[in-house]
């Protein structure tokens, strides 16, 4: 493979695609396009619509089914490692099937930005490519979209913030010395377990899409409504991408 290009596409809104990303997509010889289980077919449709808009024909798209990560047991690290191996094998198989395993420019459309809570770089490393053969095109992150949609600054003046996951928040709690948390990948609604009487939450789902949802307020007052709206949206669409910011009010 001459090059694999990991292209950040934000949340799939065509207006979030940078000019650099458009050029990289148009120049690709082959675009790898993952498909998840049937309930998430809309995710692939968003990518396909974007590719069609940029003039990428079906002959340049390699479809593959995403393997499902094993989720039983306490060996989370091992589960992820096995999953990444399985995905890398699907990438290889797609390239071979399209006779493009040796000399082509391959692209993969990545939600958000490839360097923030995404494993595409780690999976690409399993293909045995040199660093010069892996290119990253940054994209708008859901963190930026969340703050923009709510009209808030990501950080307080001169203050740090922490970007973490629901799993880590549940495991370690709210870290000392940090008043602003951005929480991603929280399918378990960990905010429900946060006991901070002076915390506000800014939540968003499907950011930048027509079905965008936003809720903000004092955590204790709105967390039940967020969980209810989240459950209904997931049932309606078959999938959900959401993120939230927690901020402790100053004493």
From TrEMBL:
Q: Which UniProt keywords apply?
A: Cobalamin biosynthesis, Methyltransferase, S-adenosyl-L-methionine, Transferase
**What GO MF annotations does this protein's record show?**
precorrin-6A synthase (deacetylating) activity
In this chain the Tetrapyrrole methylase domain maps to 4-222
Q: Does the keyword Transferase apply?
A: yes
Q: Per its UniProt record, what Gene3D superfamilies does this chain match?
A: Cobalt-precorrin-4 Transmethylase, Domain 1 (3.40.1010.10), Methyltransferase, Cobalt-precorrin-4 Transmethylase, Domain 2 (3.30.950.10)
What the entry lists under Pfam families is as follows:
TP_methylase
Q: Pathway it belongs to?
A: Cofactor biosynthesis; adenosylcobalamin biosynthesis
Tell me which InterPro entries the record gives: 4pyrrol_Mease, 4pyrrol_Methylase_sf, 4pyrrole_Mease_sub1, 4pyrrole_Mease_sub2, CobF
Signal peptide range = none
Q: What is its EC number?
A: 2.1.1.152
| GO BP term, example | methylation
Superkingdom, taxonomy of origin: Bacteria
EC top class named in words: transferase
Classification via NCBIfam families? CobF
Name this protein carries in UniProt: Precorrin-6A synthase (Deacetylating)
Where does this protein come from, organism-wise? Diaphorobacter aerolatus
């Amino acid at each position: 493979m001459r090059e694999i290009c990991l292209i950040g596409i934000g949340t799939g809104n065509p207006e979030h695609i940078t000019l650099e990303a458009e050029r990289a997509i148009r120049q690709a010889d082959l675009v790898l396009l993952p498909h998840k289980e049937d309930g998430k077919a809309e995710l692939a449709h968003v990518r396909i619509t974007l590719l069609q808009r940029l003039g990428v024909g079906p002959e340049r798209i390699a479809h593959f089914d995403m393997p499902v990560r094993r989720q039983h047991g306490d060996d989370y690290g091992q589960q992820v490692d096995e999953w990444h191996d399985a995905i890398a094998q699907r990438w290889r198989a797609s390239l071979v099937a399209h006779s493009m395993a040796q000399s082509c420019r391959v692209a993969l459309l990545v939600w958000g930005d490839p360097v923030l809570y995404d494993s595409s770089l780690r999976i690409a490393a399993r293909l045995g490519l040199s660093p010069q053969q892996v290119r990253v095109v940054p994209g708008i992150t859901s963190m930026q979209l969340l703050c923009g949609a709510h009209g808030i600054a990501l950080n307080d003046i001169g203050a740090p913030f922490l970007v973490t996951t629901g799993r880590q928040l549940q495991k370690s709690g709210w870290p000392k010395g940090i008043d602003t948390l951005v929480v991603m990948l929280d399918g378990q609604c960990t905010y429900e377990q946060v006991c901070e009487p002076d915390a506000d939450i800014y939540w968003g789902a499907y950011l930048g899409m027509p079905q965008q949802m936003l809720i903000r307020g004092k955590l204790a007052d709105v967390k039940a409504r967020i969980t209810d709206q989240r459950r209904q949206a997931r049932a309606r669409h078959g999938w959900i991408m959401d993120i939230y910011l927690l901020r402790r009010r100053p004493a």
